[in-house]
């Protein structure tokens, strides 16, 4: 909103308790009707505009890491992406935008607190599982091939028909 105003008028616009306030000094002879008209015109339809990530973080009082994690999990639903070229930058950046109704629903149902609790429990469970797996490995009770993330060790996997494949001369 402030970007549409002159430098002097920007200082007069403030946000208080979720409302835009035009603060005009009492001794100012200019009633700033043009400024009020610009603000009013820009506010028409603003509730339908998609919300950018920084605004989502402010509205929901979340950190960017939480926003990224919840977006990846599907808990925070994207309304699409926007690509912009910032002034002074050679490259364009792409970011997700969010539907205002979805963000409002998340805020009304207090889902960020619920999701934080779920994430804390999941992290604790993952740490417990990791400690248990490390203890088994240290005790020698866990086979080496199970420690590989992909599963079984490829060298120990018996391949059927491998000798026939080698007879055809395809392996060199």
Short descriptors:
172 residues; two-stranded antiparallel ribbon; two-stranded antiparallel sheet; 7 helices
Descriptive notes:
The strands form two sheets. The protein has a two-stranded antiparallel ribbon with strand order 1-2. The mean pLDDT is 83. It has helices at residues 7-10, 33-43, 53-60, 64-73, 100-108, 111-139, 162-167, and strands at residues 13-16, 19-22, 80-85, 92-97. The longest helix is centred in the C-terminal third of the chain and has 29 residues, at 111-139. The N and C termini lie far apart (68 Å). It folds into two domains: 2-44, no CATH class; 50-143, no CATH class. A hairpin with a 2-residue loop joins strand 1 and strand 2. It is α+β, with helices and mostly antiparallel strands and 172 residues long. 45% of the residues lie in helices and 12% in strands. Residues 143-158 have a biased composition (Basic and acidic residues). Residues 128-140 have a biased composition (Basic residues). Residues 125-160 are annotated as: Disordered.
Portion of residues in beta strands equals: 5-15%
Order of helices and strands: HEEHHHEEHHH
What structural class should be given to the helix and strand makeup?
alpha+beta
How many H/I helices? 7
Q: What general outline do the C-alpha atoms trace?
A: elongated
What's the Cα radius of gyration? 28 Å
Cα distance spanning the termini: 68 Å
Unreliable stretches (pLDDT < 50, length at least 5) are: none
Bin the helical content. Answer: 40-55%
Record field, number of beta strands: 4
Average the pLDDT over all residues and give the rounded result. Answer: 83
